Amino acid sequence: MLNCVVLMGRLVRDPELRTTQTGISVLSFTIAVDRPYAKQGEERQTDFIDIVAWRQTAEFINRFFHKGSLIAVQGALQTRNYEDKNGIKRKAFEVVVDKVSFCGPKSESAAANRIEEMTANEPEPAFSNAEPDDFETLADDDLPF
User: How confident is the model at residue 118 (pLDDT cuts 50, 70, 90)?
Assistant: First the structure.
């Protein structure tokens, strides 16, 4: 059997992070995905797809993505049955995320700003200021391989 979904779209609202009674993080959000075609003279339609992420993936998305962020997700389509407020049985479809990726220009991403803030206090890597004359030339006989 195969159940693989790959989507790229924009978050329509900020993600909602919750914790189960056993302490597991679960995140839910919706992305807007434009359809790839439109009939002539009509506007392109958009699908709104519910997404669920668990554990570290949920915490990662919550930390780096917000309303309007462009996101790519890979996961599996899952259905669940529930009863609404009026007692009517309903079925929900959602994508359970396995992998997530940043998309779009770095400048648009709030995630890029947060990553820059996190790394701002890290020291710059040290590089050698040696001159080319400071190195000795090796002959083929000197190489260990």
Answer: low
Chain centre to alpha carbon of residue 120: 22
* CA 69 to centroid of chain Cα atoms: 9
Q: Token match 């992305």: residue?
A: 31
Judge contact between 100 and 121, C-beta under 8 A.
no
| Full-model pTM | 0.68
pLDDT, averaged across the chain = 84
In DSSP terms, 97 is beta-bridged to: 75
For the chain, the domains span 5-35+45-115
Name the CATH topology of 5-35+45-115.
OB fold (Dihydrolipoamide Acetyltransferase, E2P) (2.40.50)
CA neighbor of 75 nearest in space, from 89, 61, 90: 61
Residues 26-70: tens digit of each pLDDT:
999 999 999 988 888 888 899 999 999 999 999 999 999 999 999
